[in-house]
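Extended Data, panel c. Modelled sequence:
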Amino acid sequence: MGLGKILKILLIVGFIISIPTIIASPMLLHHTRNSTYSMIIIYPNGVLMLAMIYQFIKLFKSLEKNEPFTFENVDILQRTSIISLVMSILWLIDLLFMILIMKNTYINYVLVISFLSLLFFGVAIALYILKELMFQATKYKEENDLTI
């Protein structure tokens, strides 16, 4: 079993486990101090993470068919990049809300949320670059297929 198959299985398992976790999160966060606030940020990020995992599963399916250079994969990478950018913005809003409105300056919280925002922003940039590379490669492949 190759690394690609292992990654795909891990993504599918993570996707399946995440669905009940997201559904149960309102009940799990009900007893916390800032439950309403937590749901506003955590719930959309969880749903977006599910969407991102689903896009990666679709990408692995096309790789299994030995069709990596298709415009469908370019679209998948673009959607995943946008999802990651939205997640980054949501984490940044969370950070600003906690610092400016809730007056929470707990350094560990600030560092973790800052890291998550920067991480997803970096992932969005990397996926955008990969999308552009994939677009060019797919375009060259299509031209090459037409000349043969």
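The helical segments are 3-28, 35-64, 71-101, 107-147. This feature is highlighted in the accompanying rendering.
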